[in-house]
Amino acid sequence: MNIRTAFCVSDHTGVTVEAVAKSVLSQFPAFEFSLIVLPFIDSPAKAQGVARQIAETPDALVFSTLTDPALRSALRESGARLLDVFEHLAPALESELGQSATPSGGRTHGMANNYESRMEAVNFSLALDDGLQPQRLDQADLILVGVSRVGKTPTALYLALQYGLRAANYPLTPDDLDHPALPAVLLSHLPRLRGLTLSAERLAAIRQVRYPDSRYATLEQCRAELAAAERLFAHHGLPVIDTTRMSVEEIAARLRNPL
After folding, report:
1. pLDDT at position 258 over 50
2. Are 251 and 207 contacting, i.e. CB atoms less than 8 angstroms apart?
3. DSSP track, 121-155
4. pTM for the structure as a whole
5. 3-state secondary structure of 7
6. Fold category of 115-255 in CATH
7. How far is CA 139 from the centre of its chain?
8. pLDDT for position 103
9. Spatial contact of 32 and 26, defined as CB atoms under 8 Å apart
10. 159-198 tens-digit pLDDT
11. CB atoms within 10 A of CB 23
12. Euclidean distance between the first and the last CA atom of the chain, given in angstroms as a whole number
């Protein structure tokens, strides 16, 4: 397999350029890519140092979200192929809007939910993780429901951190699954409930890592729990997401629609 190194260079956290690079590179399965993320490249000296590092890497690709044209110019000294998000998109948008862009690093931070609200949402999700404090479920924007290890906790925390949503999660225990309806504590919150499920094989593999060779991790047990949970979801008409082939980011994106 062909192996290429791809640098992700940013004048801020690097989250955006890394996401763009991964999305684009995934379209070329014949290659294997080694990603190197270089955040906070916010001065000519840093950009020149990065350019030297890239120049020493054979056949490097460079993804960039550097907003300062001078820093992009320094990066070109590497001689590598530069794929800059702003250089590709800004001219088209300038033409459409009839206004020139005003470069400024890190400005996307101001377009997201503010820090305080996101941290408050994270604290809320932690406080109501795994069925804790059910008396506060009326304060939740979303309540994720499912059997153990279907991805409720990481998804709730991602919804909180990325979108500022107060996401609680409630695990369905084997005792819950023996009943014809969801636990009474959930019934007054049905509009905000979202069911998570996945394939029994995937669930068994996840549980095997957590508790090797236990009944909890057997394929038979996983199939039985998932089938019972899905009957409850159908009984109450809950929206359900199959997380088998989804990342946490994908699950959260599907859940974030306003209620």
Report:
1. no
2. no
3. HHHHHHHTGGG--GGGGGG-SEEEEESTTSSHHHH
4. 0.68
5. strand
6. Rossmann fold (3.40.50)
7. 23
8. 61
9. no
10. 998 889 999 999 999 999 999 999 999 999 999 999 999 9
11. 9
12. 46
> For tokens 């590709």, what's the residue?
88
Kindly list the domain boundaries of the chain, sorted by start residue.
Answer: 2-110, 115-255
Fold match between domain 2-110 and domain 115-255: yes
Q: Do residues 202 and 149 lie in contact, with contact meaning Cβ atoms separated by under 8 Å? A: no
**4-18, 46-60, 61-75, 94-108: least confident range:** 94-108
d(CA 112, CA 162): 8
Contacts of 176 (CB under 8 A, 6+ apart): 182, 183, 232
Residue 222 has pLDDT above 90, yes or no: yes
Per-residue pLDDT, 86: 81
How far is Cα of residue 168 from the mean position of the Cα atoms in its chain?
17
Residue that is written with structure tokens 């950009």 in the block: 47
* CATH architecture assignment, domain 2-110: 3-Layer(aba) Sandwich (3.40)
For residue 229, count other CB atoms closer than 10 A to its CB.
Answer: 23
> 82: closest CA among 102, 107, 60?
60
Mean pLDDT, range 203-232, rounded to an integer: 96
CB atoms within 10 A of CB 32: 11
